[in-house]
Specification:
By secondary structure, the chain is mostly beta strands. Helix content is 0%, strand content 59%. It contains no helices and eleven strands. Strands 2, 4, 5, 6, 9, 10 and 11 form a seven-stranded mixed beta sheet that branches. A four-stranded antiparallel beta sheet has the order 1-3-8-7, with no helix packed on it. It starts with a strand and ends with a strand.
């Protein structure tokens, strides 16, 4: 069984920074794409950023130039560096990792979620 463990959330003031981590562990696996989603109060879960196995990145317009997604393949870990945080970034952040399965669609797993609260 594969497990994703998130860490790094917390309370920060407007303009502050946080770094989220999501580490995969468990049975042998091969990772495809990795990403971060968030669910703000009263809203549906939305995509925030993603990184391909080759390292190409994409961002939600609202976080472009403030957030940076990166990964450490040796540690099977994806990160989200969040700078210049705004109150509207307050949300529960979830990591998503696609595990490659030969001949079948990728198997997506989700982290448990970590709360990020930005005070004004």
């Amino acid at each position: 069984q594969v497990q994703l463990v998130e860490s790094g959330g917390g309370l920060v003031q407007t303009g502050g920074s946080l770094r989220l981590s999501c580490a995969a562990s468990g049975r042998p696996f091969r990772i495809g794409g990795m990403g971060w989603y968030r669910q703000r109060p009263g809203n549906q879960r939305e995509w925030v950023a993603s990184i391909t196995s080759g390292g190409a990145t994409n961002y939600l317009d609202a976080v472009q130039d403030r957030f940076t997604i990166s990964k450490d393949d040796a540690k099977s870990t994806v990160y989200l560096q969040m700078n210049s945080l705004k109150p509207e970034d307050t949300a529960v952040y979830f990591c998503a990792v696609d595990f490659i399965r030969l001949g079948r669609p990728p198997d997506r797993h989700w982290g448990q979620g970590t709360q990020v609260t930005v005070s004004s």
